[in-house]
Amino acid sequence: MSKQTQDKQIQQSIEKQRKKKLILDSPDSKETVTILPKQKVPSSSKLPKQFITKPKKKARLKQQTQEECPICMMNLDDVQNVCEIDACKHQICSTCIKEWAEKYKTQCPCCRAKFDFIYPIKDGKRENNPIKLNLNLPKWNQEEDEFYEDENNSDDEEKCQVCQCSHTPYLMLICDKCNDAFCHTFCDPAQLEFKVPTSNWYCLDCRKSKFIYNKHK
């Protein structure tokens, strides 16, 4: 091999080791852009812990398709305290169901199944420590043969005639006949959905009256 050939091969190997340059506009231009060699991006397993984003833990159970609390209509994944009703396995906000039960309603707002305990849910798993709800039962007036409340606890809030609660007013129906009775959409047994109906709605008392159910002959 001639000396000229050896010098040529050495020169080619030196040029390969140098950084590549891209000449702009024309060969006579002095402006160049240096192209750096490609660098490998580290996988998530090799990254420091502070740079790894963990997936958001679900507050509700994984096998549950129910996403919203039937009382406050909040997404259960965004609520801190979620529980499961022992009778029907429906999930609901702990705060909502406690207030619901304390005001004489011991039935699930979804399916109206009677319940006694609730199970807290943490990190998508049900804990095995049931909570017994302390229910404040209403006083019974034998003379009037009906439930009543103390005068000191009376207020001017519009309450549902079924559960006697005033929460979730945006889901409260008002009778189109007497214009005096109120009821939650989820407390009325005739309502199949929690949405406010587009047609007229009548309270439980007015439904029994002949004004509504008397057929015109």
Give an overview in words.
With 217 residues, this protein is an alpha+beta fold. Among the domains are: 76-132, Herpes Virus-1 (2-Layer Sandwich), CATH 3.30.40; 158-217, Herpes Virus-1, CATH 3.30.40.10. Helix content is 15%, strand content 17%. The strands form four sheets. Strands 3, 4, 5, 6 and 7 form a five-stranded antiparallel β-sheet that branches. A two-stranded antiparallel ribbon has the order 1-2. It has a two-stranded antiparallel sheet with strand order 8-9. Strand 10 (172-174) and strand 11 (182-184) form a beta hairpin. 15% of the residues are buried.
List its traits.
single chain, 217 residues, alpha+beta, Herpes Virus-1, 5-stranded antiparallel sheet, two-stranded antiparallel ribbon, 4 helices, 11 strands, 17% strand, elongated, disordered C terminus, Znf_RING
Would you kindly provide a brief summary of this structure?
By secondary structure, the protein is of the alpha+beta class. Helices cover 15% and strands 17% of the residues.
CATH architecture of the domain at 158-217: 2-Layer Sandwich
Low-pLDDT runs: 21-26, 144-155, 213-217
Query: For the CA atoms, what is the radius of gyration?
Result: 35 Å
Helix content: 10-25%
Helical element count? 4
Strand content: 15-25%
Mean pLDDT: 69
Helix/strand structural class: alpha+beta
What name is given to the CATH topology of the domain at 158-217? Herpes Virus-1
**For the record, what is the CATH homologous superfamily label of the domain at 158-217?**
Zinc/RING finger domain, C3HC4 (zinc finger)
Distance between the termini: 121 Å
Rough shape? elongated
Tell me the series of helices and strands, N- to C-terminal: HEEEEHEEEEEEEHH
Largest beta-sheet details: 5 strands, antiparallel
Number of strands: 11
CATH top level class name of the domain at 158-217: Alpha Beta
